[in-house]
Amino acid sequence: MDAELKDFTPATQRVLALKNEVLNAIPEICIERARIITESDRRYSALPHPMKRAHALEDILDRMTLFIGPREMIVGNQARKLRAAPLFPEFSVGWLKKELDTLGSRPADTFQVDEAEKEEIREILAYWEGRTHEERIEALMPDSYRQAEALGVLMGIHIRVGGHGHISLNHEKVLKRGLLDIAREATERLGALDPLRAESVGKKAFYLGVIKVCHAVVRFANRYADLAENMAVGEPDENRKKELLKIADVCRRVPATPPRTFHEAVQTSWFIQLVLQIESNGHSISFGRFDQYMYPFYKRDKEAGRITAKEAQELIGCLFVKLKSIIKVRPWDHAKYATGYPMYQNMTIGGLNRHGDDAINDISYLCINAMENVRFPEPNLVSRYGKKTSDDYLRKCVDSFSLGFGMPAMINDDIIIPALLNRGVAEQDALDYAAVGCIEVSIPGKWGYRCYGMTFTNFVKQLDFTLRGAKDPKFITDFITPGKNLAECTRFDEVMAEWDRQNTVFTTLAVEHDILVDECKKEIPEMLFAILVDDCIERGRPILEGGAVYDMNSGVQIGLSSVANSLAAIKKMVFEEKKFTGDEILKAMDENFEGQDGEIMRQMLLNKVPKYGNDDDYVDRIAVDAYESYMNAVEKHKNARLGKGPIGCGYYASTVTVSCNIGAGADVGATPDGRKAGEAVAEGASPHSGTDLLGPTAAIKSVTKLPTIRVTGGQLLNLKFSPNAVRNEKDKRKLVDLLRAFSDLGGWHLQFNFINRDTLKAAQTAPEKYKDLMIRVAGYCALFTDLDTDLQNEIIRRTEHQSIG
Q1: Is 438 a catalytic residue?
Q2: Does the pTM of the predicted model rise above 0.90?
């Protein structure tokens, strides 16, 4: 390990210039993809779905505008301008038709639209009306699910209007073989099909699509080679001319054939990531274990004297800036749950190798250094760690996130690997896991879509509904039999029995919705995704037809600790101390704790009841019971790939809630924990903002009492510290010890913000002075000034610990 890699290395002028270009680019809408795919659909609408999608991607890659920036060494653009969002009308158009004129004035995640192009955009949307993924789902959606969404318990718009994503692809496959060899394999399998077997018809369409996509991506890279050569002809600066010719040479070779150098390897991975983002508007498309598959190229170049650590770090920095250029436009009903333009492009470093040995290498350190330089939310850098991880490496991570930008997030090998083994994952695969999206995990190149992020469940609204006897005066809910409301319950276990019943009802509706979405999504197969997931080519079928080795899903459960605090208040104040009746609690909730009596009650609920996050078994046990109730309900279900080949096909839990706690809270009235109507609910598995009063160690102890081994979909804990908490070497040593303790206690995930309220408030007042202020939001990071005001305020309100412990 190079000693220089352990210390902060300043960014080069190239990386800083590229960063500023992206930072100052105004997000806008790009019409090109929508225009091209519409013309392609007219031409190929009669073809089988895999072939039609392959033709569409080919047309886009062959015709879209390309550009190479003046300082770029890693090339490739998603749209015709920097930070421009392409449109995906094949998924949904209704929301865009309504919001086209207001995209530039939303509370956050705004996009400028060229007035001269609006008429053409509307014509494109009109063509796709009646042909979209969303409309196919809407035609079959049961009224019971519609009522659950109207009620505010379930939310699934994100999977109805977009692609799936939430997947980690097999970048290593392309690095080892190149796309032309993969196309050759598909050609051989196509030739070996038995035309007398009915299944061969679908496989033929699939293989033809695979071959076409491989060659289309190769031509796409060659277009950049041509562009670089043409630019070199008129380039007056000799150094830049040499760089352009090098770019041309790199793009002429990869990803058609295996890369020879580290530069070619980084460009290969970027081309793959870029085309995946062009093909589909699903997000959380992740790199897998970047340091593992990139290290051999770096090592070979370093030993041959072809590259230095500084040069490699610059190339990684160029890649990181490129990732921030990726952007998607979402309907406001979806975007408001996670503002800040997040794409959740996860990159995993560290951890163990496939043999169970420490896998940390020079690229692990270089990625952290590059993140310290760029300080962009993309990639979402996650580090694996565990008992075998050295203190030196943990100290490097501590040095990084104590700078204040929230990365890397830390996930624990010692709990995640056993959790995956319990789900039927082979040991070598479990050892090779990688983070996806926020901090959920899957096996790179072997797992199907959405290991996390199917239908969302607002636990707090579900509890509100439960306490009212499965009735809501504002909504018709005839899909469920009314039960006992809080006033009718004579014992706390009756309340929990009603909670159990609602978990059964709503998990069933959520899974029914997921299966409907997945079945309709089969008409829009994502072909490059299938190429990069085993065993799609071997089986001759896309991911949603059962092509992946593993296929397990999770939804999102929002507000767990708010539910625990509310149930603790009911148990203590109604059934044990009898300070209030159930009817009085419900009445105060209806009145939002207004009036003197309401405020007196609220203060007692806030201050006289144990709160989750303070290592108090009274409330922590309730949190476990409430969540296990959900797990017992959801783990009974199977997804749509059951019996089609993949291992698993089940469901599990996840508390990775992005920033849904803001939108979820807006939909819920006052709750028994003293929270007022419309306020944010708890985020992830973290304590409710401001209620964890006994320090970070107590918060960790509460979270690790949860049945983490079953939360395979990810368990998110955010801790916020004052920058003064890491003033010296002793403080940093304590932070390393805190990470060790978290691992020993069986924690899943831990992430940090080292920033004070004054800085955040100053950024609200003068955002132009804090354009690159990056903070940890939830499972993702964002530039603070990109967030809507409600989310900014929620982050400011979070408990700010003054010391490590």
Answers
A1: yes
A2: yes
